[in-house]
Fold these 3 entries.
Entry 1:
Amino acid sequence: MTRAPDSPLPKQHLYGAAGLAVLVALYLLVGLTGHVPWRGDDARHFGPIFEMLQGNGLLFPLIAGEPSTSFPPLYYWTGSAFALLFGWLLPPHDAARLATTLFTALAIFWIARASARLYGKHTRTPAALLTLGTLGLVLHAHETQPMIAVMSFVAMTLAGLSLIPTRPALGSLQAAAGSVLAFLAGGLPGVMLTLPLFLVVVIACPECRNPRASGGLILGLSLAVGAGALWPLVLHYQAPELLALWWRREWLEFGADPLRPDEFSRLVELFGWFVWPLWPIALWSLWRARRQLMRISWLLPIASALLAGGWIIANGSLAQATMLPLIPPLALLAAAGIPTLRRGAANAFDWFAVMTFVVFALLVWIAWTAQAVSWPPGLARHVARVAPGFELKGSVSQALAGIGICVTWVVLMWRLPRSFNRGPASWAMGMTTLWCLAVVLLMPWFDYGRSYRPVATSLAIALAGERSDCVAMLGLSPSQRASFHYFAGVRPQSVSGNETACGFLLVYDSRNPATLRPAEEWQQIWEYRRGGGKQLETFRLYRRD
């Protein structure tokens, strides 16, 4: 394989290792703080962290006092640690999101290391750049998201197994650590995405059919299984009922509702944009290596991608976060194909990146002008309908900062010399620029429309002076329960058997404000509507008469 420099511009001060570090830092840190938990995963996964900060749910995650079986506690432990370390500087929700920054940085690092071990050091930089440029990663890399930790440890496992032909003992230990941490971060999915890779390598890889490699893999597999059993064992002695709940959820729900045939078109659509631009170059790599697919450099990422795809289908969920484990193997395959692209294909890849982010940047500016000057009128009316009452402040400073970001991007792209890394650099720089521009111009609007803080504040006022120790709930999502707990100090309790002993009942309706109506003994004392159109949400509070 032809070798190339480690960096696209080793003699340029704007780029090289320092430039790549600055680019990664901008990508990871801009937009991470300065906003409250947004509805969806951001608020939902902050709930267990907030409980841990109060001394609850240290061994098993809780959301507003109720067990949460979605993920084991590793990510929440990390978020709580950051909140404690930086609580003097940042609000708890902002400090907790630094856990996502840590795991995203580790994922980029391990993907680059695995690429260097499998394909040569000249693929290390494109592997990191392509990961940064992946369309689906950017939003999840800036929210409270445990699947980022799973993705990170899948990459760590791949990096460890890539060492098996040369340093089997070290590689097996690193892969075992990655598998154990993937289990602590993701539960059964973490096991399914990592442990089978040991068996694939030891059985199917010709380079690993020797006593040293086989012994190292068996040792790593044994250590992974043994160390992974420690958390369930401790949980069994401390809270056996929670272990039983988690075990039931992991085994009974997995595969119980797989993806239906009519949903595969949606899966293909989601896959097509989420891991763009990785998959076209990955296919090119596989075509060039079609006669060597049993070598570890190809077998390992192929097996990892197939495991991730199989898990997505068996899980039956088309949530965007479930696609994250596909990024490490596809980034590896794409990085291997970058140096082999023909000149015309490489130029097209570069120009397509430039044109893509020019179009996206124009769309961001149009969305901002709809808020600032009510143009275009149709979009301005839609913005007002979705977020009624929103008022843009500081529009001049936003415009100046946005212009500065765009000018900087144009200058850097203009000075980017020709190299086989130019295409990946264009995608990474374009994605970072687009994210920074969106944060500067659109963050206030997103923060206004995606937060439950105004609802929770209004609810706290409605409950002021009342004995509100017990508030039952109907229709609330984990994200909403976590938000009410954090912002209003209210822990909504589930209704069991259509009955509750609580004196208050909090009801949530989406779009239709009359879907859920309690019995006549309940008197409505508060109502709050947020959003508009298809995003209308209605909250009502009842008091037992």
Entry 2:
Amino acid sequence: MTTQHTEPLQLTTEEQAALGSGGGFTSTKAVGDVPAITLVDGSAGVRMQDMSQGADHLGLRPALPATAFPCATVMAQTWNPELVHRVARALGTEAQAAGVQVLLGPGVNMKRDPRAGRNFEYYSEDPYLTGVLASAYVQGLQSQGVGASLKHFAANNTEHERFRSSSDVDARPLREIYLRAFQRVVRDAQPWTVMCSYNRINGVPAAEDRWLLTDVLRGEWGFEGAVLSDWGAVDDRVASVRAGLDLEMPADRGKHDRALVHAVLAGYLSARQVEQAAERVARLARRAKAAARPDTRWDADEHHALARDAAAQGLVLLKNDDAVLPLVAAEGPLAVIGEFAVKPRCQGGGSSYVTATRIDVPLDEIRALAGEALVEYAPGFTADAAADAAPDDPALLREAVELAARSRTAVIFLGLAGSQEAEGFDRASIELPQEQLELLRAVHRVQPRTVVVLAHGGVLRLAPLIDHAAAVLDCGLSGQAAGGAVADVLFGRVNPSGRLAETVPERIESTPAFLNFPGENLHVRYGEGLFIGYRWYDVRKLEVTFPFGHGLSYTTFRYSDLVLEGSAEGVTVRLRVANTGSRAGREIVQVYTGVAGSTVVRPEQELKGFAPVWLERGEEREVTVQVRREDLAYWHTALDRWVVEGGEYTVGVGASSRDIRLTGQLALTGDHAPVPLTPGSSITEVLANPVAAAELGELFGAAFGGLGDSQAAGMGLDILKMIGSTPVQRFLTSLGGGMGLAQVQDILDRANAAVGAVPNGR
């Protein structure tokens, strides 16, 4: 861990308040001996806007050139923490050269619904995968002396009314799904900053939520850095500082600074709280300036090559019937169809949009590998057409079909235009534009060797196109080098190894949050609870088009010899993986766990480990995956803490969530987690405690002629089932005397002490 600067502040209250708000759109203030620092967007590239032309929330104004790396979705599809670390190091180098001290990323919000407009900025529908990759990003970036800003904290899963809506979510899904990735990154990587989100959480604005920003983030997780607001998220600066917010962005022209000083003078806010916030901002600024390397230079070609490697590893081969891929150049001619082949869609719109140093054009890259004379092109459709639009130019369709018919193979580029998905709004559907589907069907009728290449940010419904393509290659939004990466995979220079980080549903109506998205009356009810993504489809036994973790290769792999070992640290999973095909390739070994006969509602299986493994043709290797014990825990709502449940765990190892190759069982000892008895506990709960049962069981039995009899007086009644849920206090009241509450409390105290249960608040 980097040693933090701890110089004391010699500032007045007014100066401390000023330190806690922005000095400009992308900078803090220089106050006293505390320097100003620059903070810019940077999830997939350094977005240093040209301040001579102003700045904005949505990235509409131009920015200085930088490498546009693949978006978070594609980086997640690499399932490669080491690669994420390398990309983040490159981002750190570019940030240093640009004079940037903090990059506003990574985004680790869950992909609760595929329509969410900002999903391309987030990694996955799974908190484990997200947490591991985001930790690698933070560690890589901060190794270069540039701070990360973990965002958007928290439960920020829709763009609709994002400034005002409340995410209404129960304790277990909040902890197990929506906060878990944040927790992992804070504990494993200690980002310099955490950015709170616009939305409310269970009615409380994130920027004013002391439970979130102080009790959980700092108290439970040990966060040491500064909490800053999303741009414009602060309504009440006094309430925000009281909650634990340190830095309001952007500049507020002094209004909120004055309100903070007034609150201290009036006694509404302690001077120490303002001082603590200022100290954290000062520590951040001094740390960043001490790490600054203004003479940093970087090689644009080298970073472009890294972007191409990252894109290639993140491409997912979804389908490959009859091994139509990889293509062989000598087997041309080749038809390339679709406007995205010449005007590539390679990144998302909004604040993360990067002015790329260069853009690989897919058609040019394909011609470079296949030969100029063997490749012909037809646009086929208009990329900006509305999703439900019919083909508006029969000549475009006819030209594309004729080209496909006289070619050996057709590669058709489909997807969504930037106007159809971006920050600031959610998608109305997950459909491909109708014009594109009509084109695909027409091409496939004359050319069965049709390969589809998809460019998009959020998940698309692919069921309508699967039967009309021999192969489907999903490239998401793969950054400036996407064109070269696609060509590399199409022609086998790179063996595809990407795996989906999000389930592809059969239809939107099957998705977990369908009836609760995007919410109404400024409230979003997280009614699906724990069951987002593959968790939902598994427990509901729903068919999906492609499952979480799915991805094909040009080679094949065999799994064998599973061995499971439990310890105080967790579970060690060992197996052998062999490359049984004709090419070298990378396999992603995925480990899922479930608990048979769990005492709580929980998913059938959850991702708890993975390991990328590179194998040459014919090579076999032992693979080891460590599952942390803490990752097996669930949030115990009665005890308000994490608990590992004891029992038999099923461990499945496979190539996707629905391609489990090996399965084993392992008995684990659970945490000691007795729930304390209170007068509000039920009779059944009391009788489960041996001390309480010995002293109170006779009383309960006497009232009903004996609880030991399964049938009561020939009436066909099971008395314990009838009264078992009755709270002890109510039961005693119904007796009209006898044992008093104080006497019962004494018995419950001794019963709790016997099993080590500690009542809340004691």
Entry 3:
Amino acid sequence: MKKIMIGVFTLAALASCKDSEKTKKEKTALNYPETKKVDTVTDYFGTKVKDPYRWLEDDRSKETEEWVRAQNEVTFGYLDKIPFKEDLKKRLSEIWNYEKIGAPYQEGDYTYFSKNDGLQNQYVLYRRKNDEEKPEVFLDPNKFSEDGTTSLSGLSFSENGKMAAYSISEGGSDWRKVIVLDAETKEIAEDTLKDIKFSGISWKGNEGFYYSSYEKPEGSELSAKTDQHRLFYHKIGTPQTEDKMIFGGNADQKHRYVGGSVSEDNRYLFISARNSTSGGKLFMMDLTKSNPELKTIIGNEDTDTYVIENEGSKLYIVTNLDAPNQRIVTVDAANPEPENWKDFIAETENVLSPSTGGGYFFTEYMVDAVSKVKQYDYDGNLVREVELPGLGSAGGFGAKKEDKTLYYSFTNYVTPGTIYKYDIEEGTSEVYNKPNIKFNPEDYESRQVFYKSKDGTKIPMIITAKKGIDLNGKNPTILYGYGGFNISLTPSFSTANAVWLEQGGVYAVPNLRGGGEYGREWHDAGTKMQKQNVFDDFIAAAEYLIENKYTSKDYLAIRGGSNGGLLVGATMTQRPDLMKVALPAVGVMDMLRYHTFTAGAGWAYDYGTSEDSKEMFDYIYNYSPVHNVKEGTEYPATLVTTGDHDDRVVPAHSFKFAAELQEKQSGNEPVLIRIETKAGHGAGKPTSMIIEEYADIFGFTLYNMGFEKLPSKNKELKD
């Protein structure tokens, strides 16, 4: 057992203490489980890299299982002793307990919508035939499993709405099962389809649907590599063994991610084929022909291109070819190659995210990460700019061609997601559903600032806090980031973060390079040999918050998940002096081996790999969190979180990082790993599990900032 001393602060009212007053620190021993080391060494271009914890990559071994149990015993023993954890859990449960309703949509004779009464683990899908009828339950995922860990992960209806196919995830795994229903009777219509992964469900009329999957890997299905994705067609009433392979069955068609989508008129099948999360090929088939040929639209992986709509043989294509911020072009299906494209909606200085509905195009633009939406007709004429409720994020401007109304959502960091009903012809909006949540947005405000990163690049950041907050450097602050994979962090409300704000907390989100907020160039500026830009942007955000007295080192926590977990891991190993608490979640921590697990090799566009070249290896090795934990360094209080069923970013990343930190931490701050069982990368996690996790995360954070009771319980919050 390894023993480390951690500080437990005795503070009756931290915020009211005078600078001259000294708090007393009690020392208590925290015993970490001993993590054995093995003599595993890999040679990368002449550099021999030790990997003493590689045995933790075996998620099926009894040794790993015992290590997980022992770590959780220590972690939950610590977390359960935090004096205000139950207060946090109670408040999280209170604020979470409100009715949540999803936007309605029409399928066949029924209107469908999802609803959660408040604290249900999973949303329930309801339907009704007309507005007067009382809704009936169509699918209740809460009954899929006793503990709520089996979730509904996808649902698609046949053209006439009489059949439905839905996918489920068990324990948070990316592997899915697909169940086919007679939508009229709600009876299961045939045998369950199994071993499906990274797949949509796209119907061809009422006859059957397309889906994608891999061969089930040898070894562990949670961590073994999967790299040849294939597209299948399932005809209703036939067994899965008879499903026809459409694409991906030979070496020429080998890609890591393959998807199929049928046009709304059932005329065309469009097939995307990628080897990375950015850039891909695009093909099509004319389904009106008895033996349709595969026709190439884009034959290389240099662009992100997809078909959004068609009118007969006229295709509308979204692309970033010669347009880093994206544009829409048109072309005839007979000759769909780029040399025949014509601009329909040209590129602008803002990133375009289009959708269609009711016979119109809706173009959402990000203007410094805030939404602006315009409506165009099918001739490319601007009809109007959609008037939004305020500054924030709008989404969901999609509907079928014949629909007269659509529903969109609007949210920001202080406004709970509200659904609006939009009259497509008139261009008017009305509130459809506004949540009745026990939180007053009027007490809080968000402001956007711009700060300079290390190389002088201007980075936007939105800071949210109570109105009139005292900039005294003592506000508990969470700095949240992602910075990768062309993903944009736009303003959105979080029920959990509302509780953080109530505690006088500051929540800050910078739009780092590597994201998609300013198009492909912004994304590329945070990839491969420029990945350090992302970490520098995050570090500069922390320095801005400290310099402007929002917080200080003693009250700053950094948080991020997945690629954001890498961000936290790299930042805390490069600048351990900058923050008090680090919260890396489901992070990519072993950058030398990430591409050897599941579909990890598909992330190479963003990261490169340690096998590409000596130059790339040296660059990655220099920031890989697992390999940059140094002896004799005082690291911040760290709570690593992961799930034992995470088959996207395998938990071994977090296991190895935690083991390195526990061995080498020279300071008094705790290093714990919280391993959720029967949980994956995050999707479909039951409400009860989410509330428990946030109570632990916020509790750990505030406790290690010196609080013995919740800040909101203190009568005085100012000196």
